[in-house]
């Protein structure tokens, strides 16, 4: 998971994001990490993970969420970018679609169409029979 860091050295001031690299196989330790430092007003492109909350509400009604896209690409000022985008699907009905327009990210430039389907609510089926 990405962690925000703030740098204050005299020659290098700005905000950045740190991510762990792939592990070295020893107790899950990272083999390397990288840090991207950008100015506050610099437009940057980032991949934003989509977190779907309210899944327990769907399960109680024997519904499931079929996710077609778990992240989106967006551009915006580095300081204003969220770590992830959360969508509550707990009150959705069978057949409802979650689109980019449902994310409410008007201040960011999204790299895919606003009507792009991110997830669909479906009935849970067991052995081909709707329960």
UniProtKB/TrEMBL annotation:
It holds the Pfam family Ribosomal_TL5_C. Residues 48-122 form the Large ribosomal subunit protein bL25 beta domain. It comes from the Bacteria. InterPro entries: Ribosomal_bL25/Gln-tRNA_synth, Ribosomal_bL25_b-dom, Ribosomal_bL25_C. Residues 1-28 are annotated as: Disordered. This is Large ribosomal subunit protein bL25 beta domain-containing protein. It comes from Anaeroselena agilis.
